[in-house]
# Entry
Amino acid sequence: MYQLNHILVCLDLTEMDDSLIRYAGFLVNKIKPERITFLHIMSPYDIPKEILEAFPELEEPIPDIIRDELQEKINNQFQPDITIQIDTVVREGYPVESIVKYSQKNDVTLTLMGKKIGYDGHGSIVRKILGIIPSSVLLVSETVHEQIENLLVRMDFSKASEMALQMAFRIKELTGANVACHHIHKLPMTYFPQSQPENDKKLQQYVEKISNKEFQKFLKRYKHESDKIPFSYSLDVENEEAQILYRCALTTGADMIVIGSIVRSELADILIDSTSEKLAASDKNIPVLIVNDRKQSMGFLKTIFQKNS
# Structure
């Protein structure tokens, strides 16, 4: 069973921090971890001597100044109902590498991030972190609702889906939330140019039959009871799984989308699930929990850091 003992909240000194801190307070009261860390990574800097002379108050180390400001904000907005270890950490470094290393060294099990974190180079910080961080990642927008009652698990009958389902069960155990699975059947219409999927009853019957059959095989393989997990499906003819899944979450009243992700990489080319990446877009305001294979990610990181050391 997945443990959620140490939550890492990534702050970037923007208005997004307020939403993350408030949601962190809500989350802590729901899942009751042992520890939570608020982390801000400063870009490397070198303040010229002339600036220090003109502003003597800057002689205090900038990380300490930022930490004090963050701590004041956290004290005002983060008031958990339980006793928990709370740390506020400010470090200098490069965001992706620093966040991933902190997660690895401090046994972080869940990383909370905003969907509007800035960009680094040619790819977003969030996207790069998703591909290698050993913890699971929960992405929330600025308009997130503090509620966990219905979880929607993306189901593609893979090991990644089983990871997502196990995480959903763990959250259900902690919060009492309902869990449902949704499968999106991909059918390239290039091969069916005359068909109109929404009106083709034969095609719909085929998708229903195949989807239910695969779901039953999945349940049997992972030893789940079939009558306890609601299951639905959709047809995807234009390769827009993320959008379909998001619309399904909206129409069913889901408070969180749970999706499994397994790193596929040759070290130089990290590949993450495209649906995970698209659901991380800032225009989708339902929280997305991306469940990573911790054991695989830890081994992957050891290989990277050994090569770079």
